[in-house]
Amino acid sequence: MDQTAFMIGFSIMAIASLVIYATGGKQFPSRHHTLMHASVPFIAATAYLAMAMGFGNLQLDNGVTVYLARYADWSVTTPILLAGLVMLAFHEEGKPGEMGGFLTAIIVLDVMMIITGLISSLAESSVAKWVWYLWSCAAFLGVVYLLWGPLRAIAATRGRAMAAAYNKDVALLTVVWFIYPIVFLVGPEGLRMITDPTSVWVFLVLDVIAKVFYAFYAAGNLKNALSQSRYE
Length: 232
Ligand code: RET
Fold this sequence. Notes:
Elements: H1 4-27, H2 31-52, E1 57-59, E2 65-67, H3 68-89, H4 96-122, H5 126-148, H6 150-156, H7 160-186, H8 196-229
Antiparallel strand pairs: 1-2
């Protein structure tokens, strides 16, 4: 793999993190939103730097390269993004116990999804690879169920404007996140229909949408909701 994609990934994520941090006051309703959304590309920049420097790039006997930093990144950034949505669904409801329960459940499923995806990419036999892949997909469907089922119902009780913000965020997140297992499936870790450099570039584009574009999108939706809910 040539280093260009990783260096571009590092640069975009490092700059995005700085820009979100520096302009957050204007884009985000409050400081904690800025800090959360700036932390996500900062973690990604770290992962891309590791991949560019060849740290954690495992060369398997079957010729496939597994990028461990990618899974380390996802196992931290995806819980942050999901935590944002759970907190949005419970916006100012004041039920910390219930919110904590949903947070725990969704993060457990999400981290299981990433870890079993990593096991699938490392598996030597193809039976084991597909068993772990399917198990990872099951965890992913659990995450999607919590977002579209109980959490959506809770968000619907938080006023029309806040529910609309939640629904928009979840819709974008679901579409973008669904592409990850598809790229894995057709990529070198799976059916080998696309090459390693192609899958690296596609994951880079997805990461920019899921982390950077999503940060501004969610900030805009929340700002709208907060200004509308004043008149509700
Ligand atoms: C894997 C492979 C096994 C099956 C599934 C996967 C799902 C990965 C997802 C990753 C999302 C990453 C994001 C990162 C950006 O912050 C592990 C690829 C279901 C959904 C959004």
